[in-house]
Amino acid sequence: MRTSNPFLPRWGGADDTGRTTARTSRPVDVTVGGRPADDYTPNPYAPGADTSLRTGSTAVTMDDVVVRTATTLGTVVFTAVLSWLLLPVDEANVGRSYGLAVGAALVAFVLAMIQSFKRTPAPALILGYAAFEGVFLGVLSNTVSTYIAPGAVVQAVLGTFAVSAGVLVAYRMRWIRVNQRFAGFVVAAATGFVLLLFADLLFSTFGAGDGLGFHSGGLGIAFGLVGIVLGAAFLALDFKQVEDAVAYGAPREEAWLAAFGLTTTLVWIYLEVLRVLSLFNSDN
Fold first, then answer.
1. Are the C-beta atoms of residues 231 and 194 closer than 8 Å to each other?
2. pLDDT tens, 158-183?
């Protein structure tokens, strides 16, 4: 299993042990989670797979995923609250707080990239990413709440919960069909989204004022809504991969990768919801 977030490795790529992809062959003749067998394709842990590819570890359970996800998200929330309280964004401290927030964001990015290229989960890297990401989110949220849109942080948290609950219900009711075509479309859309963000940053940095216009107005709000939809789509992919891992008996340590993927997706959704609320409040 690999995370389903933008530009992080996905479950389904061959690794150095020669394991074949999880989504490129004919379906396994099983029914999992109430879905027809043709929704699934072979992976190293599927019934009938080569037993030499299995590890001796205990198979992952949904409880494992829940506990590790709660631990990772709890770390994000804890450090976010601490940074909100200890790194004020008033006039006397704003420079120091912003500097530490940017540094924390860069460290979080590096740790996430290191974990994404590792073939096995490293809890220390994942929790380290969560801790530094929380510092960045705390300062950013404090800034938005203080100077841009008071009350937006609470609304963004509630919005993130609402989006997550909606995706979970839609996924459990099978209103969302997560398959290879769906995954390919989402990854392609996310690639275009990130490239536009990068282009906007370049235009803004080199004197084009408001860049491509994604920082304000209706275009900015629309772009943020697209980001929320993409985050919801990646959350559906996360749910699918967790379900597959549990159904096919992936090793227990894979729960950390599930926690990593779910956390990065939820952070993405929170940031996009916060951006939309900030833009909406600033235009009113």
1. no
2. 999 999 999 999 999 989 888 888 98
pLDDT of 237-254, one tens digit each?
999 989 998 988 889 889
Token pair, residue 163, equals 């989006």
Instruction: Report how far apart, in Å, the C-alpha atoms of 19 and of each of 16, 22, 115, 127 are.
Output: 7, 9, 19, 28
Q: Which residue in this structure is represented by tokens 């804890």?
A: 78
**Residues paired with residue 59 on neighbouring β-strands, in sequence order:** 251
Residue pLDDT, tens place only, 197-242: 888 777 766 765 566 666 666 787 888 899 999 999 999 999 998 9
Does residue 64 contact residue 50 with C-beta atoms inside 8 Å? no
d(C-alpha 60, C-alpha 55), whole Å: 12
Distance of CA 275 to the CA centre of its chain: 16
b/e per residue, 5-42, with b = 16+ CB within 10 A?
Answer: bbebbbbbeeeeeebbbbbeeeebeeebeebeeebbbb
Please tell me whether the overall predicted TM-score, pTM, comes out greater than 0.90 for this model.
no
